[in-house]
Amino acid sequence: MNKETGYAVITQDVGKILTYAYAVIDTEGNITKNNVKESFVVMDEDLLAHVTAIETYINNKLNPTPAAPTN
Q1: Alpha-carbon span 52 to 44, nearest angstrom
Q2: Is 25 exposed, middle or buried (CB count within 10 Å of its CB: 0-12, 13-18, 19+)?
Q3: Average pLDDT over residues 28-45
Q4: Is the pLDDT of residue 67 over 80?
Q5: Phi-psi category of 29—alpha, beta or left, where left has phi over 0 and alpha has psi -120 to 50?
Q6: Dist CA 5 CA 21 (whole Å)
Q7: Which residues lie below 8 Å from residue 36, measured CB to CB, with a gap of 6+?
């Protein structure tokens, strides 16, 4: 079984790159490979929409909109 251990989105001139790491675990629970890394350019529009939503969420957390004044 493969178990995802981390991921990141990187913006480059070719677009959004999704890079991820995982461990390979055998049927007895032993880690047979660790920190295997792969990446790809996000081409699927649905996946790109999810990536954009995550980035928007993070940016809104970093730069919150001030609350409207109450009267």
Answers
A1: 12
A2: middle
A3: 97
A4: no
A5: left
A6: 5
A7: 21, 22, 23, 24
- Residue indicated by tokens 């990536």: 51
Report pTM: 0.78
Tokens of 28: 């007895």
Q: How far is Cα 54 from Cα 60, in angstroms, rounded to an integer?
A: 10
- Chain-wide mean pLDDT for the chain? 95
Helix (H, G, I), strand (E, B) or coil at 12: strand
Q: Which residue in the block uniquely carries the two structure tokens 């890079």?
A: 19
Paired strand residues for 37 = 21
Length of the chain: 71
